[in-house]
Design a protein that fits this description.
Blueprint (H helix, E strand, L loop, with lengths): L3 H17 L4 E2 L2 E2 L1 E4 L10 H9 L9 E5 L2 E7 L8 H12 L3 E5 L2 H10 L5
Parallel strand pairs: 5-6
Antiparallel strand pairs: 1-2, 3-4, 4-5
Helix pairs in contact: 1-4
Length: 122
């Protein structure tokens, strides 16, 4: 069973290839994508965590953000049996409030299907 990190690394390989060939677009507009590194539990000391919060790190933000003209999508990856934390559920609800596309994927294939559903991959 793949870990969330390994799934993300494989997903990025696909995104990079699609980006190289200009295959990521939404309604004819190019799509900018990036990974949000907002996990720091256990990896750093409490002072670093406090500083990250002061700098604006928000708990629950999705792993990947996709931006295009008048559209935004947030994609969270979880290991095959992984579930959203409460802060991730809160972020999902916030996305829905702002009419931002939000989805959870448990595999690379599922992530790519979500991008197809969002009309980001043709």
């Amino acid at each position: 069973m793949l870990s969330e990190s390994k799934i993300c690394c494989e997903f990025v390989k696909h995104l990079e290839a699609l980006s190289r060939f200009n295959k990521l677009n939404h309604e004819g507009n190019p799509v900018l994508w990036f990974h949000v590194r907002n996990e720091f539990k256990g990896a750093y000391d409490a002072r670093y965590g406090s500083r990250m919060k002061k700098e604006g790190v928000k708990a629950g933000v999705a792993d990947y953000i996709f931006l295009s003209n008048n559209w935004c999508g947030c994609l969270e990856f979880k290991a095959p049996k992984g579930k959203l934390s409460q802060s991730q559920k809160d972020f999902e609800a916030l996305c829905k409030t702002f009419k931002i596309s939000y989805a959870v994927a448990h595999s690379v294939d599922e992530g790519l299907e979500i991008l197809k559903d969002w009309n980001v991959i043709k």
